[in-house]
Design a protein that fits this description.
- Helices cover about 30% and strands about 20% of the residues.
- The chain is an alpha/beta fold.
- The protein has one domain: Flavodoxin domain (Rossmann fold, 3-Layer(aba) Sandwich).
- The chain starts with a strand and ends with a helix.
- The protein binds flavin mononucleotide.
- The site of flavin mononucleotide (FMN) has 24 residues, from α1 and β3.
Length: about 170
């Protein structure tokens, strides 16, 4: 793999892919973003990285998106010891309020279990949902950036701007 910061994502209808591209465009860290589509490249390109961004939509009532499900066994083999990981999820709080951003929570659990350090959590104010596996227990925060291209697409740019600053400072 190259010298960039890997951004690993999966996407069925293109929303998460679109956000990944916007992140790559706006990123102003010292190393560029290296986009890795899990359906094309699998998870091996992220093996050696010290910093990593992961993007995942939630599908099928609280489940991993298909490409993530296909690569899940390989993902669970990765040792994330000491790796700083920033997560973003893409979900739909109006359509699926009981499972909002669950996939981000599933991925976060695995990253932590494998020794990774999650950075750049995000406040849960400004959202309407009933339950989410992506909340930090006992805090008013998601474990990463929660985006909603279905019901709150208007908020995405501003959220990205704030969150990316946080990620860049945690990665430097
Ligand atoms: C059948 C279906 C099930 C979904 N299930 C969930 C869900 O459980 N939780 C959630 O937050 N969003 C859910 N969504 C919303 C998607 O996560 C959202 O549309 C996302 O932007 C899709 O990203 P993608 O285009 O990158 O695949 C679901 C959407 C569909 C069509």
């Amino acid at each position: 793999m190259g010298n960039g910061v890997p951004l690993l994502y999966g996407s069925t209808t293109g929303n998460t892919a679109g956000v990944a591209e916007r992140i790559a465009e706006r990123w102003s860290g010292s190393e560029p973003i290296e986009l890795i589509d899990i359906s094309a490249d699998g998870v091996t390109p992220i093996m050696e990285s010290e910093t990593l961004i992961i993007g995942a939509p939630t599908w099928d009532f609280g489940e991993l998106q298909q490409d993530w499900a296909d690569e899940w066994q390989s993902f669970c083999q990765i040792d994330f010891s000491g790796v700083r990981v920033a997560l973003f999820g893409v979900g739909d709080q109006l359509g699926y309020p009981e499972w909002f951003q669950d996939a981000m929570g599933l991925i976060a659990n695995q990253v932590c279990k494998a020794g990774g350090v999650l950075v750049a959590p995000w406040p849960n104010q400004g959202y309407k949902f009933e339950a989410s596996l992506a909340l930090i227990e006992g805090e008013d925060q998601f474990i990463g950036l929660a985006l909603d291209e279905d019901s709150q697409a208007w908020a995405t740019d501003e959220r990205l701007e704030v969150w990316l600053k946080q990620v860049q400072s945690e990665f430097s």
